[in-house]
Write a structure and sequence with these properties.
Elements: E1 4-8, E2 11-14, H1 15-38, H2 46-67, H3 69-73, H4 90-108, H5 112-137, H6 158-165, H7 182-204, H8 211-228, E3 237-238, E4 241-242, H9 243-264
Antiparallel strand pairs: 1-2, 3-4
Helix pairs in contact: 1-5, 2-4, 5-7, 5-8, 7-8, 8-9
């Protein structure tokens, strides 16, 4: 855990924020490459990508605040704006970014599926950087485990506080109990999904619009649904599943419909 990347006098750069910035930059570079490969000018997409990034962060933060209001924000509402300290729910950001994307396509009279395929190809790359940032901040940690890969987060970390409140450790403990590094697990999984999507997009972008989007939705839904079983941070539930798993099931069905429709069209 290393929340501060640079802290010199008045200069404070959080590792989480730096990872997010690197993720956005990497995703944009790949997106520009895909544009050149398919004959599309990347410059007109600058405004769209910028708005999707901003609204994605806002939506992710809003979803996190709603889910953790009582434990983290009810007594400290001023912390709501501290995005640099971590605390984003990916699905909240994805939903708001999709809304912005659809509005942009309507205003610009852009075909939805070809552009959606291009954007969903690069989303997992930025997501992987974001999950690495989660590790450095200490959020989105896994269950208590004695596995060889388990890690201990230091005193004052989210895992330490949660275990203290659950009476698993006492206030003199200098570190949390060992937990699974689910942040790295998910970063690796979405990085592999990105590699798959690059191949799928390059193979089907012209002949099967919508197929890459379907693969992304199904792929990430499966990753997130399984990852939720390993998470140890507080998770709000809907029936037998967490909120993340419930949304994952909906995305899995949506992704399947996109993929099937792509191959049913002439």
């Amino acid at each position: 855990m290393h929340p501060d990347l640079i802290s010199i006098g008045f200069l404070h750069i959080k590792t989480y924020g730096a990872c997010m910035a690197l993720g956005f930059l990497a995703a944009w570079q790949v997106l520009a490459w895909l544009c050149r490969r398919t004959g599309r000018a990347p410059d007109p997409l600058t405004n769209l990508v910028t708005w999707m990034m901003v609204c994605g962060v806002v939506g992710a933060r809003a979803a996190y605040v709603i889910e953790h209001w009582q434990k983290e924000f009810a007594g400290h509402p001023e912390l709501i704006v501290r995005v640099d300290q971590g605390g984003l729910m990916f699905y909240g950001g994805l939903i708001l970014a999709i809304a912005v994307f659809l509005l942009w396509c309507r205003v610009k009279k852009e075909r939805i599926l070809p552009l959606a395929d291009m954007l969903t190809t690069v989303i997992p790359l930025g997501h992987a950087f974001g999950r690495i940032g989660c590790f450095f901040y200490g959020c989105c940690y896994g269950r208590v485990s004695q596995a060889a890969c388990a890690v201990r987060f230091p005193r004052g970390s989210p895992a330490w506080y949660e275990q203290l409140n659950a009476n698993l450790i006492d206030s003199s403990a200098q570190a949390s109990l060992p937990v699974l590094p689910t942040q790295f697990f998910e970063a690796a999984a979405v990085a592999m999904l990105f590699a798959v999507l690059i191949w799928v997009y390059c193979r089907f972008w012209k002949s099967r619009p919508g197929f890459t989007t379907g693969v992304y939705l199904m792929g990430y839904a499966l990753v997130r649904f399984g990852m939720e079983f390993l998470r140890g941070d507080p998770r709000a539930a809907i029936g037998p599943f967490s909120i993340g798993q419930t949304i994952s099931l909906a995305l899995l069905l949506a992704g399947a419909s996109f993929a099937v429709s792509a191959f049913r069209r002439p």
